[in-house]
Amino acid sequence: MISKQKIHILGWITLLVFPIPAFLVLHFREDYSLSEFLKLEDINIVSIGLGIELGVAFAFLALLLLSAPVFDKLPNRVELMVKQMNLNVFDAFFLSMCAGVGEELLFRVGLQFYLGPIITSIIFIAIHGYFNPWNWRMSLYGVILLPFILLISFGFYEFGLWFSIAAHFAYDFVLFMSIRSSD
After folding, report:
1. How far apart are the C-alpha atoms of 13 and 92, rounded to whole Å?
2. Read out DSSP for 88-138?
3. Can you tell me the distance from the alpha carbon of 82 to that of 80, in angstroms, rounded to the nearest whole number?
4. Rounded to whole angstroms, how far apart are CA atoms 154 and 133?
5. What letters, b where the CB count within 10 A reaches 16 and e where it falls short, cover 123-156?
6. CA pair distance 133, 139, nearest whole angstrom
7. Helices 78-85 and 161-180 meet at what angle, rounded to 10?
8. Of 59, 91, 112, 175, which is most buried with the most CB atoms under 10 A?
9. What is the CB neighbour count within 10 angstroms for residue 182?
10. What is the pLDDT of residues 30-75, one digit of tens each?
11. Which DSSP letter does residue 183 get?
């Protein structure tokens, strides 16, 4: 079992450290201010609501698809990793918020600025280990997740950063809570 302290440290690292390279590059190459980087002027309840709806809907779809027999032999099942973390509601909320904010700042505001939504989405899935040339089942999970990440990536242009953060947060939170309560 993973200690709560390690889980919380990883959450804080994701939230506070992941965005730093993206901000520094955008600040020094594109003259972004911290406010521009955080897109504070774009915070809007409609976009956040749409992001939450997308994240919740895709989380339930992913849970349904992951229950297919093809994933039974997956060695590193997401459910097993989440169960080993023994998350309570606060932990699930905290980790979801850290991942939603930290990763979206890095990927959507940072990498996507230079690489575009498609390449950034593929990198996002690959970095999470879901495109694995030695494990076709894990890669299949990556293929299932890719449309969601593409929707977040293209939605970033239409609805803003906070849409992407809300969608990512909601997806993770629903997965954590569903897996945690499935014992």
Report:
1. 16
2. -HHHHHHHHHHHHHHHHIIIIIIIHHHHHHHHHHHHHHHHTT---TT-HHH
3. 5
4. 26
5. bbbeeeebbeeebebbbbbbebbbebbbbbbebb
6. 7
7. 80
8. 112
9. 10
10. 999 999 999 999 899 999 999 999 999 999 999 898 888 888 777 6
11. -
Query: How far is 182 from 172, CA to CA, in rounded Å?
Result: 15
And the tokens for 108?
Answer: 């959507």
Report the distance separating Cα 104 and Cα 162, nearest Å: 9
- Beta-carbon contacts of 133 under 8 Å, excluding residues fewer than 6 positions away, are 139
Would you state the structure tokens that stand for residue 162, as one six-digit string?
């906070």
Question: Contact at 8 Å (CB) between 109 and 26?
Answer: yes
For the whole model, what pTM was predicted?
Answer: 0.93
Q: Is 118 exposed, middle or buried (0-12, 13-18, 19+ CB in 10 A)?
A: middle
Mean pLDDT by 10 residues, the chain (183 residues): 86 97 97 96 95 97 88 69 84 97 98 98 94 86 95 98 98 92 60
The C-alpha atoms of residue 148 and residue 82 are separated, in whole angstroms, by 20
Amino acid, single-letter form, for residue 132 = N
Please give the structure tokens belonging to residue 151.
């929707």
**Residues belonging to the chain:** 183
